[in-house]
Amino acid sequence: MKLVYFAWVRERIGLAEEERELPPELATIADVITWLRQQGEPYEHAFGGAGTIRAALDKTHAKPNAAIAGVREIAFFPPMTGG
Amino acid sequence: MKLVYFAWVRERIGLAEEERELPPELATIADVITWLRQQGEPYEHAFGGAGTIRAALDKTHAKPNAAIAGVREIAFFPPMTGG
Amino acid sequence: MPVSEIPVSDLPVSDLPAPCAIDIRIIEGDFDPAAETAALCAGRTDIGALVTFTGLCRDEQGALAALELEHYPGMAEAEIARVAEAATHRWPLLGVRIIHRYGKLMPGERIVLVMTASSHRANAFAAADFIMDFLKNRAPFWKKEHKPDGTAKDWVDAKEIDEHALKRWDQAT
Amino acid sequence: MPVSEIPVSDLPVSDLPAPCAIDIRIIEGDFDPAAETAALCAGRTDIGALVTFTGLCRDEQGALAALELEHYPGMAEAEIARVAEAATHRWPLLGVRIIHRYGKLMPGERIVLVMTASSHRANAFAAADFIMDFLKNRAPFWKKEHKPDGTAKDWVDAKEIDEHALKRWDQAT
Questions:
Q1: For residue D2, which phi and psi values (nearest 5 degrees)?
Q2: How many domains does one find in chain C?
């Protein structure tokens, strides 16, 4: 699975993107986040620290309970501040 | 008194403006209109024919019952269609 | 008697203390929206939102050869200034520029420009919208349509919807 | 868990049948609003109202040296297109152009352009306002502020007011 990170999520993790083999029991975005928090301090800081995180599946906004089956890219980022 | 006319009011009367000696008993815009309607067919057509007329006193919108004392210019025109 | 009992809607007022620069022009020739933007924003970094409304001479399926715009010199400037000032008292604006043309205009030509600047977009949007609503109701301009066959020339009737639009601004901001 | 339960507001939908030309660009360099206007209006006489919103990099009293805009390539275009399409289904529009920049921007520079054309002004105003509200909430852009002292660099927080602004569009048009 391709994981991509933006803004302070990217900075806390120290990566813009990475390819990860996800355990097959991970079914939703929320599951992926729970698993990522166990991948070391930077991930715990990004996903367990202060601030709201949003997610997208294959470049489409998705809720935490969205299923990741068949997805190629998951993105994590703070609420948007464009415009 | 200077009287000025715009749009179809001007066209019906056949004048863009005129200087008129108003009878001293005319107190309001409504009085002026009643008097103008007696000044010939073009005026009757303009002020008694179809269509709504608005008025301004010295280039400021005014209601029919507005007093004309001290005024130098009365304008008559249809509802505005600019913009 | 056909004289309207309510000539125009009263402008809503409010108490904001900081009116901004207001530039109003009534002209016969065309204008350049880009030059107006540059003039309004020159040397400033406090403007976060700029809303530009451009009204164009619209041809309804070939039914219009040209528009002729008559205006009341002096009163046109004064009325538009009143509307712009009311907007600056209602929203915290950083600049207002309004241009209205008169004379003969062909389909596709610009008629009116309303430009409002503010720190934040909601104020700029509301102010431009407000200015157009009141400008249409209060500014002494009248449109005559020239038809393609050269015969009929009709004065455009004021639309009721334009007066109804004003009621939106009666409530508090 | 800090993940937002509602990632973004759903776009309101409606049934208008006639979507119009939509032009969307995500670019690093500057853009020219006058060129966009000319492109949108070229050869047309059916447009009566053109609303242009320009978002500018605003310096709050010398507190900002520059903005850095990060974006999610691909998703940014797609999300803005969704917002623009929703607008064309909700109002009878004759053209929409949206440009959003990314990269480093100095105070006073243009960030975003939203241009909507319609026969009548109310539709053009509402559509531009709507597009900006949803663009801010849904388009994947993030602003980082560079301070004049060169030290602190802070990500801009999303404003609650921006989410509240969306609720205006829940009612029928």
A1: -85, 0
A2: 1
Within 33-62 of A, beta carbons closer than 8 Å to D belong to 33-34, 47-56, 59-62
The chains found to touch A (3+ Cβ pairs under 8 angstroms) are: D
Q: Residue D140 sits in which domain range?
A: 22-156
The range of the structural domain enclosing residue B66 comes to: 2-77
- Residue C140: inside a domain: yes
- D16 within some domain: no
Which residue type does C140 have?
A: P
Q: Is the pLDDT of residue A17 over 90?
A: yes
- Please check the confidence at residue D3 and state whether its pLDDT lies above 70: no
Helices marked H in C16-59: 33-41
Tell me the average pLDDT across D40-47.
95
Is residue A83 included in any domain, yes or no?
no
A66: domain CATH number? Answer: 3.10.20.30
pTM of the model: 0.94
CATH code at position D42: 3.90.1170.40
* Chain C residue numbers touching B8 (CB-CB < 8 A): 155
Q: How high is the ipTM of this complex?
A: 0.93
pLDDT at C80: 98
User: In Å, what is the CA distance from D69 to each residue of B81, C121, D139?
Assistant: 44, 19, 12
Q: Is B30 a member of any domain?
A: yes
Alpha helices in A1-83 (DSSP H): 7-13, 29-36, 41-48
- Closest residue by Cα to residue D107 from D54, D142, D145, D56: D56
User: Which position has the higher pLDDT, C6 or D48?
Assistant: D48
